Amino acid sequence: MKGWKTLGADLHLHTRCSDGACSPEELAAAARTANLAVIAVTDHDSTAGIAATARASAEIGGPQVVAGVEFGTALGDDAREEIHIVGLFLDPENPDLRAALETGRRRRLERALQMIEALNRLGVALRNDDVLSLADGGSVGRLHIAQALLRLRHVGSVGEAFQRWIGQGGPAYVPRRRPGIGEAIALIHRAGGAAVMAHPAKTGRDADIPALVAAGIDGIEVYNGDQTRDREDHYLRLAADYGLLVGGGSDCHGRNKERALIGQVRLAPERVEALRRRAQEWKEKSECPRSSKS
Q1: Is residue 259 part of a domain?
Q2: Domain annotation covers residue 135
Q3: Which residues pair with 247 in a beta bridge?
Q4: Are 181 and 280 in contact (CB under 8 A)?
Q5: How far is it between the farthest Cα atoms of the chain?
Q6: Are residues 87 and 212 in the same domain?
Q7: Which end of the chain has the smaller Cβ count within 10 Å, N or C?
Q8: 206: how many CB neighbours lie within 10 A of its CB?
Q9: Do 154 and 26 fall into the same domain?
Q10: Both 272 and 195 in a single domain?
Q11: Domain for residue 60, yes or no?
């Protein structure tokens, strides 16, 4: 691809099919403006935006689009929503993946409705439609609740909504059921994808990296839109220590999280190809016929 070595790749992006601000068409246009060669659409519990983004990008001569997804996972009995795994180069039509995503979306919806009920009990007037309309038919999350609270002037910012009402430990917070880390990694592998630990500096779970390695994680997001150079160097060393592949993406949600980050991370071609090759290995393994017991 022309300009590949200078343009680079952003392998962590969101659309309105989860909690991003951009439609698939807008994301494709933003990626072309940012002069990216490759992007990955990695919506939360959804692959719905991948095909539309790929079509739009092809029509405008934009970047190659990689199929991805992001899972919020739990490690053991720890139910905190702090370990996220991005699946890359996977098959979005894989039946196991589709079933798991549908379960995840249903659980997200149930949780959102419970949080709306909690807010109403606390005297904060909020209707289901105020939130669901912002999800645009995609995977609903807390960010949509925060945006609805902001639109109705119950808060002065999205951040205030989380701090005051719906952040962990807040009066309207409801924990969400999520797959175990091993379950999510195995699911990504069965769908022919590479599993990468997302934004490690943000989650601060370095102590759990050995458990992720034991569960079969393929890589770690060394480069992220919110990570400092020191943190990048730190995770680059950890990737080498544990034999992990190096991932990178801006985690751009458009303007939904105050600022657009697309183009701030440009993963080098050899890093992208290593992830692609690993995904191909999992794809070939998943396609091997299972031997029957005699």
Answers
A1: yes
A2: yes
A3: 221
A4: no
A5: 67
A6: yes
A7: C
A8: 12
A9: no
A10: yes
A11: yes
Contact 11, 272 (CB under 8 A): yes
Tell me how crowded residue 64 is: count the other CB atoms within 10 A of its CB. 17
Phi, psi (deg, nearest 5) at residue 79: -95, 5
Q: For residues 149 and 158, give the distance between their C-alpha atoms in angstroms, rounded to a whole number.
A: 8
CATH code, domain with 256: 3.20.20.140
Q: Which residue segment(s) compose the domain that 129 sits in?
A: 103-166
Report CA 73 to chain centroid distance, whole Å: 11
Q: Per-residue confidence of the chain (294 residues) as pLDDT tens digits?
A: 344 445 799 999 999 888 888 899 999 999 999 999 999 999 999 999 999 999 999 999 999 999 999 998 987 665 555 789 999 999 999 999 999 999 988 998 999 999 999 999 999 999 999 999 888 777 888 989 999 999 999 999 989 999 999 998 999 999 888 889 999 999 999 999 999 999 999 888 899 999 999 999 999 999 998 788 899 999 999 999 999 999 999 999 876 555 558 888 999 999 999 999 999 999 999 887 654 443
Token duo for residue 25: 């068409």
Residue type, 8: G
CA 288 to chain CA centroid, nearest Å: 28
Q: Encode burial over 96-134: b for 16+ CB neighbours within 10 A, e otherwise.
A: ebeebbeebbeebbebbeebbebbeeeebebeeebbbeb
